[in-house]
Amino acid sequence: MHRFLIVIEKANGNYSAYSPDLPGCVATGATRKEVEKNMHEAIEMHIRGLKEDKLPIPKSYSSAEYIAID
Fold first, then answer.
1. CA 6 to each of CA 52, 54, 69: distance values in angstroms, whole numbers, following the listed order
2. How far is CA 50 from its chain centroid?
3. pTM of full prediction above 0.85
4. Residues near 1 by beta carbon (within 8 Å), at least 6 away in sequence
């Protein structure tokens, strides 16, 4: 199993998502739930394409952290 960080951003009227460890793998959606679903499908398709082309699946090095500022 592979795990990848995704970043979800609220845009003007929709949401967009990307994975820092999978350049070019992006998705959009009208809602947060929709963009999560679409990004999951985009990553599956991206990984399937890498396997078909016999290319290595990138390791996930990205992480995220919230920092609280007073």
1. 23, 24, 23
2. 15
3. yes
4. none
